[in-house]
Amino acid sequence: MNMHSNENIETCYHCGEDCTDEIIKNEEGKSFCCNGCHMVYDLLKENNLSDYYRLNNQPGVKQKGKSQREKLAYLDDETIIKKLIDFSDGRIARLSFYLPQIHCSSCIWLLEKLPELSEGIAESKVNFLKREIYVTFLEEKLSLRDVVELLINLGYEPLINLEDLEKNKKNKAKKAQEKSFYIKLGIVGFCFGNIMMLSFPEYLGITVEDQHFIELFGYLNLVLSIPVFFYGARDYLTSAWHALRHGGVNIDVPISLGIFALFLRSAYEILSDTGAGYLDSLGALIFLLLIGKWFQQKTFDNISFERDYKSYFPIAITRIVKGINENIPLSKLEVHDTLQIKNGELIPADSILKKGEGRIDYSFVTGESVPIRKVSGDLLYAGGKQTGGVIEIETTKEVSQSYLTRLWNEQTFQEEAIKDLLQSKTNVLSKWFTIAILIIASIAGAYWWSVDGANHAVNTFTAVLIIACPCALALNAPFALGNAMRIMARFGLYTKDTIAVEKMAAVNHIVFDKTGTITSAKEQSISFEGEELSEEQLQLVYAVTSQSTHPVSSRIAQHLKQLDKKLKVENFEEVQGNGIQGEVNGHAVKLGKASFVNADKAGKKTFQTVSYVNIDGKVYGKFLLAQSLRNGVDTLLSDLHERGYKISLLSGDNSSEKEKLSKSFPEGTEMHFDQSPKDKMDFIKKSQGGGETVLMIGDGLNDAGALKQSDVGIAVAEDAHQFSPACDAILAAQKVNQLNRYLSFSKIAMVMVYLGFVVSLLYNVLGLSYAVQGNLSPLIAAILMPLSSISVVLLGTIGTTWFGKVFLKK
């Protein structure tokens, strides 16, 4: 490695910055601006990650002047670690950071290769839009400080604000950003107004005899245009520069070229004393672009589909206040609240276990389903699921909606990462659209230069670049489908992302579970058949069934609720698809299928759901829950059949119900009984293998595998406590009979998306036709550009809102 003085300016191979102070050359002859960039290059090369530089030219982040490692000593403090870590079980830990340096595809590529740079990192995922990274690391090999140091070494220093750990200050940051924008708008407006005033003589055709005043006015306009150009248009210029530097184009490229054309042409005319230039047009253009940006952002904020968990996230919890249980929504949950968590229920916020034995399944967080035993005083992390008996916890943090929804959307509960194909196509279309506009603008400008001179050519060139806007194409689908998500949530169907809405529109095969889905546990009458149970034995049964959220167990517990003696249940277990068991006061209690409790299944067949009871090894009989379809399900099934959907039924109960159910289901419906969770999943796999797009709707407890396998998995929640992370959507139980309406609405939402594409293309065709003819000024183009995006977005949101009221009305 040799060090050279800076005789000729060279750019850094890693970050692309000019090597102004020194040039560091490696053995391959590559130049670097500092030791930091050179070190990162060597690190990537040593780990066979040189493809980082193939994705984009000079994609790195400048290293010189980065924070020193000793400044990170505070990250060894246990108090700070607990506040920053999202999850830790002593073996693995998860955290998330905001990385403002993320700017291109190379950044994503490199950051998601962290496991190859350090064996202590198990996984790293990047959210490009939010500039966030989610890291899972092994605590025995790395510490929090080690992870942060690695990110800094790569040029991605996390933005860590300790005050933000105590209180969410996003609104404050947003207000600061808005204040900065308003200052910029005020400065540009001031300069633009004065440029207009100094241009009055030219507007009014007033002859100024003293040539010195004409020159003075021109120079003053040029001085006033400098902050307009370098400050007011900075965001557009820098965005375009980054895109071009990395071999791409974006919407800011044509806009920036138009701004450059106006400024350079004006500066030339004024300095050469050949004309007055177009600085009034430049000031008006940038001022109107900023006004349009402000108006557009305000419009988007007002119709934003970003879900607020206080209104839409479908989880409620049981809070204990002075010994009395009360159901509350997440919005009312506070730090130090005491909560009751039953088997299968989610822990909504970081908490301390106060009572009971915790068997926490963190598969929602880590993907590993082996329960971890916890005792009183242990810390429980948000996203864990209790798999044993009832526990009581005390919250130590506020609910993080972003964390819960991120867990719901993560790849852990998908067979593979699903790409939004519609959005991907939109992005490709936008890219080629921008390239085409650059070509059209150049041809139109050259034509008018030869026909009518520079003045007409500059105006036409600039107008074409500004009027043509692919923004509407890029914004249309997210806002239309996002608004559809919000509307469906208001009417009882909570989808986790826009992909679920898009796939619902493509469904052609619907698979129903029975118990808790098309039938309601709350509406079932209940009786007991067999040897009469004593009051003490019924108390034992209640104690065990009250631990479960399964529809059958919940109905039995509700039936016996008056016998509650607050008995302690130990070693509670729920065997998926079979039954529940536990120990109460030294008695072993089991309820469930005949095979699970060792009962003799012989006897007359029944059209009811059966749950056998075994206490201390003796089978006493069975609870019979009358089967009745939910209100409106008959009509739902008939309507779906008429619309051409293929319908199937999968049930874990016996086939004795087939005759009765056949009367409600359409002729030809495929019905399968005595289905295990694996049987259900295999059935869906087979259907998908035949080219069908399958929607599975089940209770989310015994159907997790099938819900995960299906193209769209909908979990039916009898109450808001039930939450299955394997599903794509959660449907309020009382809304099952409206499934046909949700499907129809999803199709309408997709129609609105395609309609928005058509409107956007028509706008661009008409605008370009006027612009290339030289009939459109840059000022009018600057006004129309944001209005086009707003109109297309409003079309999608207003359209989906109106159709939502039509299709999803109560």
Descriptive account of the structure:
By secondary structure, the chain is of the alpha+beta class. The chain folds into six domains: 2-55, no CATH class; 69-166, Alpha-Beta Plaits, CATH 3.30.70; 172-302; 337-407, Calcium-transporting ATPase, cytoplasmic transduction domain A; 480-519 and 629-743, Rossmann fold (3-Layer(aba) Sandwich); 526-626, Calcium-transporting ATPase, cytoplasmic domain N, CATH 3.40.1110.10. Helices cover 46% and strands 18% of the residues. It is built from 28 helices and 29 strands. The strands form six sheets. The chain has a seven-stranded mixed beta sheet with strand order 17-29-28-27-18-25-26, sandwiched between helices. A six-stranded antiparallel beta sheet has the order 9-8-10-16-11-14, with no helix packed on it. The chain has a six-stranded antiparallel beta sheet with strand order 19-24-23-22-21-20. A hairpin with a 5-residue loop joins β2 (23-25) and β3 (31-32). α16 (421-467) packs antiparallel against α28 (778-807), α17 packs antiparallel against α27 and α27 (739-772) packs antiparallel against α28. It starts with a strand and ends with a helix. It comes from Flammeovirga aprica JL-4. GO terms for molecular function: ATP binding; ATP hydrolysis activity; copper ion binding; P-type divalent copper transporter activity. Pfam families: ATPase-cat_bd (PF12156), E1-E2_ATPase (PF00122), Hydrolase (PF00702).
